[in-house]
Amino acid sequence: MRAHLVPAGLVLVLAAGCGSEETHVNDDRPASAVTVTASVVDGELTVSPTKIGAGPVRFLVSNQTQRDVRLTFETAGSEAGTTARSPSIAPAGVASMQADPQEGEYELRASDREIPPVTITVGAPRASGQDELLQP
Asked: Domain tally for the chain?
């Protein structure tokens, strides 16, 4: 009975080794996400950093006011572009939002129009995260 198992097992191993001759391009990973912190305190929006390279951005927002607030990240001026909106952030709450902006000028502004917006400058694209360890 063992004599029959060896040829059958050999056929399975050889069949598994056969594959498509098709080639594919191994594109680099996108740049690793940059974390930008923002807080709303005493009628002021504070953001750090305000200059980043193009690529994925994660905003971490803290609301230190007495009422709900929502932040919007969008291309400055009248041209259409990247837009991200945070969920409604309760007083003393924290929320996050993500965007993938290209090179240009952007504004981060609060739903409370009395709080002045902050300009964020997005420069040249950041390098690929291809050789960075422990990335998703």
From this structure: 1
Q: 121 or 136: which carries more pLDDT confidence?
A: 121
> Which residues are within 8 A (CB) of 58 and not within 5 positions of it... i.e. 6 or more apart?
33, 34, 35, 36, 96, 97, 98
Res. 113: pLDDT tops 80: yes
Domain that holds residue 92: 34-125
Q: Which residues, at least 6 apart from 74, have a Cβ–Cβ distance to it below 8 Å?
A: 81, 82, 83, 84, 106, 107
Residue 109 lies in a domain: yes
Identify the CATH number of the domain in which residue 108 sits. Answer: 2.60.40.420
pTM assigned to the model: 0.74
How far is the CA of 59 from the CAs of 14, 42, 48, 63, 96, in angstroms?
51, 20, 10, 13, 5
Residue (of 67, 46, 49) closest to 58 by Cα position = 49
Give the pLDDT confidence of 51-75 residue by residue, as tens digits. 999 999 999 999 999 999 999 999 9
Identify the three-state secondary structure at position 8. helix
